[in-house]
Specification:
The structure holds two protein chains of two kinds. Chain A is of the alpha+beta class. Chain A is built from 22 helices and 15 strands. Chain A is globular. Chain B is mainly alpha-helical. The chains are: A alpha+beta, B mainly alpha. Chains A and B meet through strand 8, helix 9, helix 10, helix 12 and helix 21 of A and helix 5, helix 9 and helix 16 of B.
């Protein structure tokens, strides 16, 4: 399909395209370092290609190669629903890559992350400083020669004032010369307010330093990394199955969905088909998690707006669903439910009646909260037109999920690139029109209703059958074979002792999580541990746009916007 | 003024202030339990004394113990004298406004008149407005002396909000002065009389809405709790406060609510008047009233006692500890008290009661009516808090200056026309 894009690239750039490949439906082109900006611009602007959404940018380290470092770009086209992966390589002696920050706004933080973790320099980047690791960190953590058990030092807090000053200065210089005015002396005339990392509206742990003019926010800079748990470094040192529990902690409001996303990626890498029943159960738990995630997001957003009661109406409904999750896998949050090739165990026997009861409660809670909020004048004034973003900006910032759909773009991975059984189910994509806080809240409302529709259909149609594949590369043999035959014993031994070994290769697999596209980029070198894992967390791009969204707003707006974006520190910082 | 008068006034001060001060923990309990039921949950029910929970009332006691025993923390930036002074001002101002509120009609026993009102000032309501506007100093000083940005922003918000809504509040009361022709609360209540259609809530609905809205802003309650702005400013002006100093702000807030509700009762809801029951009728039929109250109290005790005992029987062994006996501990005495009251009903029926029982009964009824109306409005304050979202600062200002103020001015003109031609 999008071989077409590769051909176009060849046609346009000729020998600057060093290699192309197409594995697992991921089209890949390795581009000459000097041509990457042009290639990205071409892919973005060329009619017929229109790769307008930069999904992810990450680094990778291959010490054995001549050109040690690699930067991987994942591009997505919303109009043509195609994907492409670009790669740029650079040697250790000169780890510099041209920055594409002028093309996609979302790249700013992604390039900072690649710099932070790999030490790759991006020439032309406006603010290349560390992002996930603290500012006094030594070395680059994801380089293969950085020992994963090395102890760090306890950092002093970063005041961020210099960064804020640079940001103000940069914006001043963007304006035409006659409107610029004087250089502001922050020490003398600014009222700086430090919101977070421990602040009641920062659900999680992140920070934003704002420069206030009365109650109005003039400029701000955000800082993340307070919850950085080295997910990617840890993953490189654990075998594939041991990573599943780590994915619980990514988006801790909907852990089941992260389990599914990760296992789906590894299964694609192994080319394994999972049984029909497991597929349907995965759809079921994904949609249930989506509802659970949206309930918390909308509930806490309303709490931030001062409407406290709604939160409890939602939480009662959510609590019942969590009861089911507890019966499903024995944990409320640390679910660890999926397995590579299937599921941990079958769903509880009373699922059908229990979940239908849950959905009835959900609809009641939705009606109650809608009655309290939807036409409430105070709420409408607090949210309508607040934090609005246009569809073009949202795409440039790499928004996905409800926040993008609130801008009127009907992009949903479940429709655009259907996986599992989503194409057999009857449901709609709700979209907003203005991309403001109000739309974000009520797009989520409607998505919950759609997810409830999906769940009802799944409950009707879920087939009987096994829940784990019989493929012996990943599945343990049944006990009678282990004890009764030498092959069974050996297979059991191999999987337990050596782990699952996918063939060498790489995959970018993506699912629609509650906040947007959750992508897993996995590189395998054929061993039992992944060579490189990169998570594409939906929050990362959303929070990057946050300083832009709150500029010119009031402190109260900043809080309202943050709740509507649903930033989950667990997946933001990984 | 004799020493007797001085002593009597001192006694009244103690009685009224104790009453108001004790409403605060009760209101905190109502707030917590009420919001719990609004939010579909149970609310406080864990603190026990010997297995008794009193529906969570002991949490108020536990809170007090906790707050008194906690350390007073101060950061390096505070300006200490003002930091300590601010909460004192908050409580003092709230308490002092209650001085001119008459809770009942004067109790006349022969040639001795007892008026449950600390000071019967002719300026009356103006005194309340004057003192309640001083409350802004508490917030302003607290926020400024804390030495933190969140506190400072909270204090600025408080100052601008209170000044803005003060005006609408004052202007809304002007309409009452025009119709009532007096500043004395006692006179205003007397003018309203016992017919609910003569109460100012019906006669001057706009003034009521203005006063009520402004009162929300004055007490810093949701939807006007911007100075606190929990999710935005952590806790606004009292971010840096802890222990009893923090508690005094809260006491101030609840006392403010109580006093505000008292004022609404007096100004708009006919004060101590029962609808369609005139004071004269009550005076001449005080024995009827006493009997009704007597029988009512007896029935109430029996019903409650029976309910609690049934509760115990139904859920015996539910907790498996001392809490199970709670139903019995309260149920049996209530039942017996009810039965004893019922049996003693014979007393007012047969024995000639002393002459002072009649006036005292009327006094008690009026007191009860005032407190009931006041507590109802306190409940409305709580109810609204858990229903509405919070305003934003500019919207708050817009509402205050562009909606309420013109409305208040128009209301004065309208009332003037009404007084002249109506």
């Amino acid at each position: 399909m999008s071989q077409f894009a590769l051909e176009k690239l060849h046609e346009r750039f000729g020998s600057a395209i060093l290699e192309t490949s197409s594995v697992f439906g991921n089209e890949t082109a390795v581009v000459q370092r000097s041509k990457i900006v042009d290639a990205c611009r071409f892919l973005r602007d060329e009619p017929g290609l229109r790769f307008n959404l930069l999904m992810d940018l990450c680094g990778a380290d291959y010490p054995g190669r001549d050109e040690r470092y690699e930067v991987v770009y994942h591009l997505c086209s919303i109009p043509t629903k195609k994907r492409i992966r670009l790669k740029v390589r650079c040697p250790e002696s000169d780890p510099t890559v041209p920055s594409i920050a002028s093309l996609y706004q979302t790249v700013n933080w992604s390039e900072r992350e690649a710099y932070d973790l790999f030490g790759i320099q991006f020439s032309g980047h406006p603010n290349l400083k560390r992002i996930l690791c603290h500012h006094e960190f030594e070395g680059h953590a994801l380089r293969k020669d950085y020992p994963y058990n090395k102890r760090g030092k306890i950092p002093t807090p970063d005041s961020l004032v210099d960064e804020l000053h640079a940001e103000i200065e940069r914006r001043r210089l963007e304006r035409p010369a006659e409107e610029r005015g004087e250089v502001r002396d922050l020490a003398a005339d600014a009222m700086l307010l430090n919101i977070g990392p421990s602040h009641p509206a920062m659900h999680g742990c992140f920070r934003v330093l704002v420069d206030l003019d009365g109650e109005r926010i003039r400029d701000s800079v955000a800082e993340i990394g307070y919850l950085h748990r080295c997910f990617e470094k840890e993953s490189e040192n654990h075998c594939y199955t041991q990573i599943i529990p780590y994915t619980d902690r990514l988006n801790y409001l909907s852990p089941l969905m992260n389990n599914v996303g990760y296992c789906m990626a590894v299964e694609k890498l192994l080319s394994i088909e999972i049984p029909e029943r497991a597929v349907w159960i995965r759809v079921l738990i994904c949609e249930l998690s989506r509802i659970m995630d949206h309930l918390v997001c909308v509930g806490t957003n309303l709490v931030d707006l001062g409407a406290l009661t709604n939160f409890w109406y939602f939480f009662n409904a959510r609590e019942r669903m969590i009861d089911w999750v507890e019966a499903l896998c024995g944990a409320r949050l640390t679910t660890n439910y999926t397995r590579i090739g299937g599921l941990m165990r079958d769903i509880p026997t009373n699922t059908n009646s229990f979940l239908r009861e849950c959905l009835r409660e959900l609809h009641k809670a939705l009606r109650d909260v809608e009655g309290l909020t939807k036409t409430n004048r105070i709420l409408m004034e607090r949210t309508q037109g607040v934090g609005a973003i246009t569809a073009e900006d949202a795409i440039s910032f790499g928004f996905t999920g409800p926040c993008l759909r609130a801008c009127g773009v009907d992009y949903d991975v479940r429709k655009a690139h259907p996986y599992y059984t989503y194409d057999q189910l009857d449901w709609d994509i709700p979209v907003g029109s203005r991309g403001d806080c109000y739309d974000r809240i009520f797009v989520r409302f409607e998505e919950m209703r759609q997810s409830a529709r999906i769940i009802e259909q799944v409950l009707d149609r879920i087939p009987a059958g096994p829940i784990q594949t019989h493929d012996r590369r990943v599945a343990l043999p049944p006990k009678h074979e282990v004890y009764g035959s030498i092959e069974g014993l050996m297979q059991h031994f191999k999987i337990i002792m050596h782990g699952i070994k996918p063939p060498a290769g790489e995959i970018y697999s993506y699912t629609e999580a509650a906040n947007g596209e959750l992508g897993f980029y996995i590189v395998s070198d054929g061993s039992s541990k992944p060579y490189r894992i990169k998570v594409r967390p939906p929050c990362y791009t959303l929070y990057q746009a946050y300083p832009e969204l709150i500029r010119g707003g009031m402190i109260a707006d900043a809080v309202a916007i943050l709740g509507g974006l649903n930033i989950i520190a667990g997946e933001l910082d990984r | 003024m004799t020493w007797f008068d001085v002593g009597l006034t001192a006694l009244k001060v103690v009685i009224i202030q104790m009453m108001i001060l004790n409403i605060a923990p009760l209101l905190i309990w109502v707030e917590r339990k009420g919001c719990a039921y609004i939010q579909d949950r149970r609310g406080p029910n864990r603190a026990t004394i010997l297995g008794l929970r009193l529906g969570g009332l002991f949490h108020a006691l536990a809170d007090v113990v906790k707050l008194i025993t906690k350390a007073d923390s101060e950061n390096r930036e505070v300006s200490r004298p003002l930091f300590i002074l601010a909460p004192l001002i908050a409580v003092f101002i709230s308490l002092i406004t209650v001085a001119i509120v008459p809770f009942t009609e004067p109790l006349v026993l022969g040639n001795f008149t007892f008026n449950l009102q600390i000071a019967d000032l002719s300026a009356g309501l103006l005194y309340v407005l004057a003192f309640s506007s001083l409350a802004v100093y508490a917030l302003l000083l607290a926020g400024w002396s804390s030495g933190g940005n969140f506190s400072l922003i909270g204090a600025l918000r408080a100052a601008s909000q209170m000044v803005s809504y003060e005006i609408s509040m004052g202007l809304s009361v002007v309409a009452i002065f025009m119709v009532g022709g007096s500043f004395r609360l006692g006179d205003l209540v007397a003018i309203q009389g016992e017919n609910p259609f003569d109460w100012f809530i019906v006669k001057l609905p706009i003034a009521f809405i203005l006063f009520f809205t402004a009162l929300f802003a004055e007490t810093n309650r949701l939807p006007f709790d911007l100075p606190e702005g929990e999710s935005e400013l952590t806790a606004g002006y009292h971010t840096e406060y802890s222990s009893m100093r923090f508690a005094m702000f809260f006491m101030g807030e609840y006392i403010h609510i109580t006093v505000g509700s008292l004022l609404i009762t007096m100004l708009f809801l006919g004060g101590w008047n029962l609808p369609y029951v005139s004071t004269e009728w009550l005076r001449s039929h005080s024995s009827y009233a006493l009997e009704i109250i007597w029988v009512g109290a007896a029935l109430f005790h029996v019903v409650i006692g029976a309910y609690l005992i049934r509760h115990y029987v139904r859920r015996r062994g539910f907790w498996g500890d001392a809490r199970d006996r709670e139903g019995l501990v309260f149920g049996i005495p209530a039942l017996f008290a009810g039965l004893a009251l019922g049996a003693a009903y014979i007393v007012p029926k047969t024995i000639l009661l002393p002459w002072w029982v009649g006036p005292v009964t009327v006094f008690g009824i009026q007191m009860g009516v005032v407190l009931a109306k006041t507590l109802f409005f306190c409940w409305v304050f709580i109810w609204v808090r858990w229903t509405l979202p919070r305003f934003r600062y500019d919207q708050l200002m817009r509402l205050g200056w562009k909606s309420l103020l013109p409305l208040a001015l128009a209301n004065i003109v309208l009332t003037g026309v009404m007084v002249l031609y109506g």
